[in-house]
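Posting for a labmate who doesn't have an account.
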Amino acid sequence: MRAVKLYAPGDMRLVEIEKPVPGPGEVLVQVKAVGVCASDVHYYRDGRIGDAVVTEPIIMGHEFGGVIAGLGPGVEGLKVGDRVAVEPAIPCGECAICAAGDINLCRNIKFCGTPPYDGSLREYLAWPAELCVPVPDSMTMPEIAMLEPLAVGVYGVEIAEPVQGKSIAILGSGAIGLSLLQAAKASGCGKAIVTDLIPERLEIARTLGADATFDAADPDLVKKVVSDGIGLDIVFEAAGENDAVRQATEMVRPGGMVVVGGIPREDEMCLTASLIRRKGLTIKLIRRSKNTLHRSIELVRQGKVNLSPFATHTFPVERVTEAFELAMAHADGVLRAVVEFS
């Protein structure tokens, strides 16, 4: 079967590998669509994210949807032909952190497309059945792939709860930022402001419920957002830029909360100590998602979230490098590039 392997920064190759056989409790997923996440771009461009380093060829990808193509022994509740979204993280389920319920923080976690574990840019993979969730027939495969970033956004809003009636800003309107926006709106937030450098993304944010949008490069951005001189209740950072983290701490009100979701290229985050201390801020960080995939599917089913604008560009797997290059360049108004297997 075909798979895409990253051999070195900028060096992706379409190769042939052996088709897997599902073991006990596993299903065989025929992968149909894979989103190119910003974290995938980090590996493609730099060969690393912080201390997670690509040291040998690896299959990228963790945002994906597919069809059940086979059942391993003991699998119930799923059948061949089911269209599914897939939770890309396999926690160990045995450590103290998992026992405390923080499965997304498990130190033994196996995460799709994160060294040393192969990801979803391949025609088939065997995966635990309990992590494969049937989806509505109305969803396209690229939309199913976008359920993973939606689950991250839903989790980000969950750790900021309660957001009902509160003023918020979201800095960065990629797939995670727009997921945060829609999840916050579904939870009843008050005024929602979105910033970004890409005009096409801001236009999508307005169609998805943003009450106001601003150019992230505007030198008067903070002054315009903090029009009351006090600040917003909650600011979500989803740009992966230290400047955005700094802006978040400047926009939030005293006693407010900053939720950081972006991954910066350099493995550091810069904060002005006197500012965050004087304001008495609460700062939380989003680490992937935690038990929010089912809820994300339900939000789509109820019509409270629209994923159709996310996959702005699709590519056949033979053009996977083009998809990564486009995502890295932020060109042509790309929000999410999606690679499809025919």
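Reply:
Got it, the structure tokens are right above this. Residues 147-160 form the longest helix (14 residues).
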